[in-house]
Specification:
3 helices, about 45% helix, mainly alpha, two-stranded antiparallel ribbon
Length: about 120
């Protein structure tokens, strides 16, 4: 296994983390022998490691950034396609650009990860 597993999300133990094979089928899951915390059952060892290494906070942030991206795209589309008779809201446009730059900075800093 080339990817190192993160410490247990429950007890923070790092030395007693392993990938176990499920009793039925050809599936795998991460397991902490110190506290019994079990990861998501996956179809490969690689997926089991990836799931084990995904933290609830990271997963929540990924969902948030994807939702914000959709809102940013919709707002930019609205502002860009506003007709001549429509009044473009410069504050909205600037807020959109600022939010987009903030999200990109978080991605680049490693605070957030892009979902595959």
């Amino acid at each position: 296994m080339t990817e190192q597993m993160k410490p247990c999300n429950h007890c923070s133990e790092s030395d007693n983390i392993e990938i176990r094979k499920a009793r039925i089928y050809d599936h795998y899951y991460g397991y902490c022998t110190a506290c019994g915390q079990r990861g998501v059952t996956c179809s490969s060892k690689k997926e089991a490691v990836e799931e084990w290494n995904t933290r609830p906070e990271e997963a929540r942030l990924i969902v948030v950034i994807e939702a914000q991206g959709v809102l940013i795209d919709a707002a930019l589309n609205y502002v860009t396609n506003a007709g001549e008779d429509d009044q473009k809201d410069e504050k909205l446009f600037n807020a959109i650009i600022e939010a987009e730059q903030d999200l990109l900075a978080k991605l680049e800093s490693g605070l957030l990860t892009r979902q595959k």
